[in-house]
UniProtKB/TrEMBL annotation:
InterPro entries: AMBRA1_autophagy, WD40/YVTN_repeat-like_dom_sf, WD40_repeat_CS, WD40_repeat_dom_sf, WD40_rpt
PANTHER family: ACTIVATING MOLECULE IN BECN1-REGULATED AUTOPHAGY PROTEIN 1 (PTHR22874)
Gene Ontology biological process terms from the UniProt entry: autophagosome assembly; mitophagy
Each WD repeat, start to end: 27-69
Name of protein: Uncharacterized protein
Molecular functions per Gene Ontology: ubiquitin-like ligase-substrate adaptor activity
GO cellular-component term (any): Cul4-RING E3 ubiquitin ligase complex
Length: 104
């Protein structure tokens, strides 16, 4: 990919260009630290983030906007993944696994 993402204790996500090393976007909106991040395999402008209070957000990194939001009602999203071809997200929180269809 052309970008990588980092999460920070100030609750932001920074998108960095691999080619230049420059920050191209700062995503703001989580109320706790984003713990896990993942880009969509086919649409590199889409990023999903999961934070320490159980919230998931889908971002468009080019417009720096949150496109979708879900609160899982649990603590700590420990891992997120996009389905390789569909608009489906899997998120793990402790011993629970959640699926989120973001196409609707």
């Amino acid at each position: 990919g052309a970008y990588f993402a980092t999460s920070h204790g100030d609750h932001t996500i920074r998108i960095i260009s691999v080619l230049t090393g420059q920050t191209i976007a700062v995503l703001e909106g989580h109320t706790r630290t984003p713990w896990t991040l993942r880009f969509h395999r086919l649409q590199s402008n889409l990023l999903v983030s999961g934070c320490l209070n159980g919230d998931l957000k889908v971002w468009d990194i080019h417009t720096q906007t949150c496109l979708r939001f879900a609160s899982l009602g649990t603590e700590r999203v420990t891992s997120v993944a996009f389905h390789p071809e569909k608009f489906l997200i899997a998120a793990s929180c402790g011993r629970e696994l959640f699926f989120w269809d973001i196409s609707v």
